[in-house]
Amino acid sequence: MKRTILTTLLMAIVTWISVDGVVAADYKLNPFTLAYEGAITKNEPGKVNIHPVTYKLNGLDISANVYTPASYDPKKKYSAIVIAHPNGGVKEQVAGLYAQRLAEQGYITITADAAYQGASSGKPRNVDKPAYRVEDIHGMADYITHYAGVDGSRLGLFGICGGGGYSLKAAQSDKRFKMIATLSMFNSGRVRRNGYMDSQLDMIQKRLEQASNAQAQEVAGGEVLYSGDANLTDEQISKLPFDLYRQGYEYYWKTHAHPNSTFKYTTSSLLDLMVFDATDQIELIDKPLLMIAGSKADSLYMTEDAFKKATGTKDKELYKLDGATHIETYWVPRHVNRTLDKLKTFFGRMK
């Protein structure tokens, strides 16, 4: 008995470890491999529960988690929210955090690993084509609107980082989404084309040539080439020019690491990524739009640009989290709580 109690206490202690002063979540000690603070460790009556599910999308097996609110009754009707994860992220990280916390507000939520990524199937691994990521969002909507207790007429969409950019694209045509919100929106096409903060404009043609060669090599049955895959030392990370990249390595490799999460993507994906832009035809969004970003985020320029171009709706708001950087909106409690307060008011209009 004493040994059992001691083991439990030790697990509780090591679940949260400090890396460079940052509180970290150990996915290995969570039965659902969740990697965020306050994550569910078991399903209990009267509390928010997590339900791992798998469904088919274009012939692939999609791995998702559905969160149901406390005292969930499948005979009742609930609003639901689809949550799209960041580039390189998986459902067990920040997307899961917000899915759980929004379920605490009374919503049924779903977050899924993108096709070809995470625990979802698809080969080659880590394809990152915009059309696939947008289809992932439609697929989550397809699944959750038929989940017991979901009122399909009260469906919201919340996209984080790259998932925010793809959510803007998905919402342009998918009118099942009645409310659209983004957090730290990342316009994947613009960044892959122009470089982060438009810093690689002189290399566009070179990168397109590399992507074309990678595609030719894949089609010929050769090795699949990847971009974005780097094993950097702490010293190299500290010298990266942007907060997003420095703190991103810290978050994804240390404090909230998960084995299914990776920065790499097939180089051939750039053929589609570099001609994509989340803001193209953004004026087709005619529903309420809330865009949240940190006031100190070096990615803020993408949220501001998209917000300005979203002329199809007058019901829109740009909300800046004072003092927050991009990655800090993923886990720092005060920024997470302020984001959730804002989302509570926003999505509460669906109820």
Task: Tell me what the structure shows.
- This protein has one domain (2-350): Rossmann fold.
- The protein has helices at 2-15, 94-104, 130-144, 162-173, 188-194, 204-219, 234-238, 243-255, 270-273, 300-309, 328-331, 333-347, and strands spanning 16-19, 22-25, 49-57, 60-68, 78-84, 108-112, 150-160, 177-183, 226-227, 265-266, 289-294, 316-321.
- By secondary structure, it is α/β, with parallel strands linked by helices.
- Residues 1-23 have low confidence and may be disordered.
- The strands form 3 sheets. It has an 8-stranded mixed sheet, sandwiched between helices. It has a two-stranded antiparallel sheet with strand order 1-2. A two-stranded antiparallel ribbon has the order 9-10.
- Helix 3 crosses helix 4.
- Helices cover 36% and strands 21% of the residues.
- The longest helix is centred in the middle third of the chain and has 16 residues, at 204-219.
Percentage of residues assigned to helices? 25-40%
In the sheet with the most strands, the strands line up as 3-4-6-5-7-8-11-12
Average pLDDT rating: 93
Biggest β-sheet: count, sense, barrel? 8 strands, mixed
Please state roughly what percent of the residues sit in beta strands, choosing from under 5%, 5-15%, 15-25%, 25-35%, 35-45% or over 45%: 15-25%
Number of strands: 12
Low-confidence runs: 1-23
Total helical elements: 12
Radius of gyration: 20 Å
> Which structural class fits the helix and strand makeup?
alpha/beta
CATH top level? Answer: Alpha Beta
Order of helices and strands: HEEEEEHEHEHEHHEHHEHEHEHH
User: Any idea of the CATH topology?
Assistant: Rossmann fold
End-to-end distance? 47 Å
Relevant CATH superfamily: Alpha/Beta hydrolase fold, catalytic domain
Overall geometric form: globular
